[in-house]
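Researcher: I'm preparing a figure for a lab meeting and need a structural model of a single chain. I don't have an experimental structure, so a prediction will have to do for now. The sequence is pasted below. Please return the structure as tokens so I can convert it later.
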Amino acid sequence: MTTRERRRFGSKARSALAVQSGVVYALSVREMYRKYGAYKLGVVWALLEPIMMIMVFMIVFGARGRGEFGFIDPPLFILASFLPFKVLFSQTLQGCSKAANAMNPFTLFRQVSLFDMMLARILLTTVTALLALVVIGCGLAWFGFDPIPDRILETLCGLFLIQAFGFGMGIIFCVVGSFAKEMDKITGLINLPLLFLSAVFFPMTIIPEPYQTWMAYNPLVHPMEMIREMWFAHYTSPVLDLEYYAKWLIGLWAIAMSSYRLRWRRISAP
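Model: Understood. Here is the structure written out token by token.
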């Protein structure tokens, strides 16, 4: 391959990536206004919604004392648990599983794919979660708490891992939903039991055996425990196993991408 051909190939690759980036950005902006444009507060509600949910749980659990959280202040525990699961995992799962419903206006545009719509919704969810994290963290710092994770990069990695699981599940639910519309209802129903089965409201250190071992079979417990262990230096998880979680994540994504590749054209068809 000559130097000119390499340059031509590289420019095409960059332009294709630029086109997809522009599509994802435009779709994310459209999704933001579609979801929150009807409210008087507008896009500000995208940030207020998760903040209000987390604040309610902080108040409820804060009134119960701090002993059950392993001497971690309840507001910090709720921030490190509820935001990753409820915002990053649950909203990513629901957004991806229902992405096909938002594809009707774009079926004639070849540049817009179903995967782009999923990425746009994930981008919106990620930005919302990070902004909510910053705002709540500043508020907690104002009241004398220390919301900064002890190991920031590892904490961000844990947030990415739990969102990646929601992304994979969302793809599978989207594909299965093209066969059975009842999957939309199932997606909403599984969130409540997963809140308790994934150790969102309590650390695994307070769970006695053999229930601790049984709960550790749930792969979502491991990124939740990783986030706590990285956020709070004095917390050590008794069940954290990233190798076990990696096997689940790889298998989940293998199924998700295989099913997506076989079905995405039919799902996106008008």
